[in-house]
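User: ok so my PI wants both of these folded by tonight, can you help

Assistant: No problem, let's get them done. Here's the first:
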Amino acid sequence: MVRFIIRRLLFAIPTLIVISMVIFAILDFAPGDPTGNLPLTVPQDVKERIRESLGLDQPTHIRYVRWLRQFFVVEPQYIIEDLTGLQLINPEDPDAPVRILSWQTRGPVFDLIFQRMPQTLLILGLAYVFGALLAIPVGVYSAYRQYSAFDNIGTFITMVGYSVPTYFSGLLMIIIFSVQLKWFPSFYDTTLEVTNWETFVQQVKQMIMPVTVLSFFNAAQVSRFMRSSMLDNLNLDYVRTARSKGLNERVVVLIHVLRNSLIPVITLLALQIPGIFGGAIITEQIFKVNGLGQLLITAIQGSDIPTVQTLTFIFAILIVIFNLVADVLYGILDPRIRYD
């Protein structure tokens, strides 16, 4: 298992390099200029000096190598400094390496990401956990009671949840629960600090709708996949053999069948973690959650290429990492799978 993980990590290095080249090239050649939003009265020579200060006067391959070095070498040093207090870079050194800077704020991109990350992780984390906890039991019971009233109702609800996009369900919840019933706030207040019971209740209320929207969407996908996987395994020979040996039906379903059925579901669950950031981008826009999705949209609108490049590449890294996690979990769930 250890050798397999090492091999996959080594294979991930050229994969991520190619992904980074594609991301950098697409965004670098895309239309848009950081000086495009400046007033027309700004002289052209001033715009050129601004472009030079941003390093845009250099060739594409030079800027790519510099960005890659900043991402993998410079930024980790600053992160280690913040976590441990060790001084790895002297800020007074004129030759100190430059961090990845946002064109909009002129501040480090990673600082912006760490500021927005808690909001996104709170919403996404709860939505992911609630979605999985709801979807797996519903999928298992629907498969075990195939064509029952529970299965038919669950199938209809999951089909609706899978078909309806998050921007529609989000707006619908705002209209019903915020505008009509006035139960929950329509917008997420990121400045709210939980200091007492009253602010805690406010925090819970403003989280209910975005978490529900994402949970419902994620649960619909996983539940359908779980049901299908359970149905494939319930009619196999090993299930009949286990029942013929007199094993308890609960043991057969929840131990033998569920364990084998979870193997393909693990892929979906693992890849959902980076994938739900796509849904979170829309959901954060609807509920005005000041998270990574909002940061990405703002960066795109402002032609803030370094921020867009960094966020997109982080999402790509998450996909590669959780692909590896899914493969490792295969070996844990299925003893037939050996990597060494």
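One down. Here's the second:
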Amino acid sequence: MKDIFMHYSSFIRQSGNGYPLIFSLFVAALLCVQARSAFAYDFNGFTISGDERAGWVQYDYDNPKGKPDINKGHKDSHGFYIMPKLSIETPSYNNFRVKITGAAATDFGLNDHDKQSRNFVFDPGENESFAILQELYVEYENDQHHALIGRNEIFTPMIEHDDYYMLSNSFEVAAYRYKSRYQTDLHAGYFHKMAGVWDSGDNGTEFHSMSDASFVPQVNKNEADDSGVYYAALDFSNGLHRAQLWEYYAEDLYNIVFSQYNYTSSTSNFSYDAGAQFINFSDVGDLEDSSTSINYNLYSLKYDAAFNNGFSVATGASKYSDGKGQGDTLGAWGGYPYFANGMIFHFFEAGSLQNAESYKLQGSYSFSSNLTFNTRFTYFDLDDSNSISSDGRPQSYMKLYGVQLKSQFMNSGYFTGTFEYHDTDHEKRVWALRLIGGFKF
């Protein structure tokens, strides 16, 4: 295997910037298959598992030099990466178990480091391969109680692992869930630190406090003094109805109230999910007294339907209030529960989402249980008195056109290919491509 990789490295370097993408993915698949067959096993009750992921990521902003008056200065970026992950989990003893996960991201020095600033794999300042102790936690679970403390890829609506890209977020967290007898789960906990290049406002290749990982200006991070985020929640579900209410309190930064209701049902021909969502962001503590303003809310509706013939449709509409703070909050810490997003691009390509509206229409077809094609159009109706282009002109719209192919194979293999074209008022055209696949074992 080492000889194969040496020949591959030589071939890439001789090819300059013309990356042979298909060959890259083929070699990554070989690495994945070998790792899968070599390491997937149980040993005296200890479970060894992992995820060998590889992918090509490309963002084209029509801005090869990163000029500040074009697409907010975002620079054209591309690269191929391999992301190995390996976990060891102990057997359960009196309902306790321990898990440890190591992960890494590398390009083996093959990419042009001047073309990686927008790929969200390495830290954009360092542009270096890295390894991280992503999980190390103790967990307790019985029929009613679940408790966890340590590093974990936790999932909640507004702070979550976001495992749809190259390497998921991880958090240092203390979390507790109680399953009541009334079809309601109670949640409480505290997020202390996070790591995640895609969603952290600090160096995401290392663990930093939640305040440092936020998207607020540096002066506000300093005032928050490495503080974390407390949370509590009620989650009711009886099959047809689900109602959630989550509260996140980030000390000296801002408070989030997340509420959502879903009604899901089915007939002989299709199933559907209708939902309504309200999210409120408001500054608290030291940030409330600063020049940074976070005070807005977001209303959303959705209707998704899946038919027995393989077709499905997903729709969403959102309204942002006229308050400020979207750029300091949306997507921070990994939570993207919003009903009307794009497939790759979301918020930060427009000048502002203050007083904006967004609409999503997605159509899908499942060729089989393992192969699905999705196409999506998302339209942002921008308020041109608030949203200003990179060269100072008012913006009235942002349009996102996306296509995606998702596949599962060989029991634990997966692949997702996503392309999205981006058209924003008074900005140069933008497109992005993600080809990400691997094996879980």
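The longest strand covers residues 46-60. The CA atoms of residues 417 and 435 lie 4 Å apart. Good luck tonight!
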